[in-house]
Amino acid sequence: MYLPRLAERRVLKINKTYPIVMVCGPRQVGKSTMINKIKQPNRKMVSLDDPNEKRLAIEDPMLFIQSHGYPLVIDEFQYAPDLLPVIKLIVDQKALNNEETNGMFWLTGSQQFKMMKNVSESLAGRVGIIDLSGLSSAEIEKRDVDYFHPSLEQLKLRENVMIKKDVHQIYENIFKGGMPKLIVNNLDREEYYNNYLRTYLDRDIKDLSQVGNEIAFYNYLTYLAARTAQELNYADASKVIGVSAPTIKNWTSILVSTGIIFLLQPYNNKASKRLVKTPKLYFMDTGLCAFLAKWPTPELLENGAMDGAYLETYVISEIVKSYYNSGKMLNLYYYRDFDQKEIDLLFIEGDKIYPVEIKKIFYPTNADKNYNVLKKFKLNIETGIVICMVDRITPLNKNTWLCPISLL
């Protein structure tokens, strides 16, 4: 069974305007499956997981392209980066001859860190890039929605197709995560994530020369899983893991670039010096995060000490996925100052700022108490929302609405 992806239309749209479409994302989030499902019948698909194809692509990239022709999909493209200048040469030659170039090559890969090294320079103006993550709740529930926006008008549009979920169902979703194979085939969760981590460490991480100590890197992963939705302190992590702070920063960059974690930056427009400058980390797949932190059941996760952190991770990751699927620029931040006042999420749009809080309870009466700290930024503070367990969009007061988590 195939679950349609909201990013499909972006691939087809970019295909009409760029010579090259690049789909990046972590392993097993469905890149190859989606591409194979929507590609035209005349578009050949070749994977560099095949040792013979990989060898030819590395040793003679021009012959590789000539032997397959185009339109062409090159899966796991990161294994042969020397294909880039050859693809550029072919695209530019066709353009010089006034021939059609749109949609010539589709590239997919799970090592964005490696893929993007030369892409910006080699393919500038020729490539449209799509970030793909695991299944969003909207995709699992087959809801056709656009990116999440906190305006009341957009929330009501999402409410029209919302499927209500109670707190137990939410935490079941958090516990399972959004990996397509796990969701579609109902695989054993523990076995799946064990294999996933082994593949990630053995293939992606070993292939990146920046990681020399695989065991320490795995320990860092588990360290982060126990601290999702918290500020990331490189010095503290360095002491716990036993590697240098620059190494921790480098490993964090790899985890971000391979789509395992997302860093939410603090908002600071220099209106105040009393603001923290440390990013907060979130796992993009809550199931992987819960597995690494060794939570055995969704019930224990729901009632455990990290229930709020996992709910916040779920909400942030769902919003980020919706932006990726729609190709929208992420202007998301959080707020925290030295007086310990915090706002979970800020949407910034030009001179507008939308504050968002995330709460596990059904009716949080005072959740918007910190929104007034935003006045110092001299932006237009729009109606805020509190994402919580309510069943429908409900006014909290004249400046804040309660928004169901099921709306994501």
In short:
The chain is α/β, with parallel strands linked by helices.
Structural class: alpha/beta
Number of E strands: 15
What is the helix content?
Answer: 40-55%
User: Which descriptor suits the 3D outline?
Assistant: globular
Largest sheet: 7 strands, mixed
Question: Which terms would index this structure?
Answer:
alpha/beta; Rossmann fold; seven-stranded mixed β-sheet; 17 helices
Describe the structure.
- The chain has about 400 residues and is α/β, with parallel strands linked by helices.
- It is built from 17 helices and 15 strands.
- Strands 9, 10, 11, 12, 13, 14 and 15 form a seven-stranded mixed sheet that branches.
- The protein folds into two domains: about 10-130, Rossmann fold, CATH 3.40.50.300; about 135-405, no CATH class.
- It has helices at about 10-15, 30-40, 50-60, 60-70, 85-95, 110-120, 135-140, 150-160, 165-175, 180-185, 190-205, 215-225, 235-240, 245-255, 285-290, 300-305, 305-325; strands spanning about 20-25, 45, 70-75, 105-110, 125-130, 230, 260-265, 280-285, 330-335, 340-350, 350-360, 380, 385-390, 395, 400-405.
Describe the SSE topology.
Layout: H1 8-15, E1 20-24, H2 31-38, E2 44-47, H3 51-59, H4 61-68, E3 72-75, H5 83-96, E4 105-109, H6 112-122, E5 127-131, H7 137-140, H8 152-159, H9 167-176, H10 180-185, H11 189-207, H12 214-225, E6 230-231, H13 234-241, H14 245-257, E7 261-264, E8 280-283, H15 286-292, H16 298-303, H17 307-326, E9 332-336, E10 342-349, E11 352-358, E12 380-381, E13 384-388, E14 394-397, E15 400-404
Helix pairs in contact: 3-4, 9-15, 12-15, 13-14
